[in-house]
Design goal:
With about 280 residues, this protein is α/β, with parallel strands linked by helices. Helices cover about 30% and strands about 30% of the residues. The chain has 9 helices and 13 strands.
Length: about 280
């Protein structure tokens, strides 16, 4: 079976779901759950849950190495963890129906070393999935070199842009230039509206309950409907979609089947609290 490498952030998620409208300056009864998260981490776990051979590359505080390794292993994900004196990243997710607001401290993730990853390293993998969060705070040439080395090593490169807010902070044209050579781009609608459809050979746009649009070299090819389910927590639905997509590609299925698998995986994700598979 082809191997998948996922590169990106490790985040400790604190997910808050108010049980009533939030009351300012006083208490609001809520459901609160802490889980290991991070977009790339979630993608890796969803892909592994579907049978893909997945390795995750990220950076954590040195004291958290064992804890994070064990949590990934419990979800059948192998790890290559770089260590830092900075705290492991953390995130508070405030869920309001289908909407969510995120307060983020990337912590150790900002110290992930991608410059040392050359094409020889990437020859171990057939698919390389990179979270856009990995790119923020880096130089354009560093990102372009990462994509080049992965492709030179024989891997297909898939990128989730990560965050429209961070894209604007990075600089829209610089970001577009940095990720131009990726094979498959997987933005949500807001990110797509910023970036457009001409960056990659294939652009797969996540539109939430409105489904998925697929573009080939800037031309819209097809729309796939979402599965109608009762959403409990939308956190991580896009990550679940991406995990289902790359796992199905790694299982040597065509893109059409990979997109359908991604949609089904996202439907499972929104029916549970948290951004990870529930076994």
């Amino acid at each position: 079976m082809p191997n998948v490498l996922v590169i990106g952030d490790v985040i400790d998620d604190i997910i808050v779901v108010p049980k009533e409208p939030i009351r300012v300056n006083t208490d609001t009864d809520s459901s609160i759950q802490q889980t290991l998260g991070g977009s790339a981490s979630n993608i890796a776990c969803w892909a592994a849950s579907l049978g893909a051979d997945v390795t995750f590359l990220g950076c954590v505080n040195s004291k958290d190495e064992f804890r994070v390794t064990e949590q990934f292993a419990s979800l059948k994900v192998k790890t290559i963890l770089q260590l830092s004196d900075q705290p492991t990243g953390s995130l508070v997710v405030l869920v309001d129906g289908e909407n969510r607001s995120m307060l983020t401290d990337r912590g150790a993730n900002k110290e992930l070393d991608i410059k040392s990853l050359n094409y020889i390293f990437f020859t171990n993998f057939d698919y390389v999935f990179i979270s856009g969060y990995t790119f923020f705070g880096r130089e354009v040439i560093e990102i372009k070199d990462l994509i080049y080395e992965a492709q030179h090593g024989g891997a297909m490169v898939l990128i989730d842009p990560g965050s429209s807010g961070y894209i604007k902070d990075f600089g829209l044209e610089d970001f577009k230039n940095a990720i131009y050579a990726s094979d498959i781009l997987i933005p949500n609608k807001e990110e797509f509206d910023l970036l457009g459809a001409t960056l990659s050979q294939i652009t797969v746009v996540k539109n939430g309950s409105a489904g998925v649009d697929v573009y080939a070299e800037g031309i819209k090819m097809q729309t796939y409907p979402s599965e109608k389910v009762e959403a409990v927590d939308p956190t991580g639905a896009g990550d679940a979609f991406a995990g289902g997509l790359v796992a199905t590609l790694a299982n040597e299925q065509p893109l059409d089947q990979a997109i359908k698998a991604g949609i089904s995986t996202a439907a499972k994700a929104v029916q549970t609290i948290g951004a990870r598979p529930q076994f």
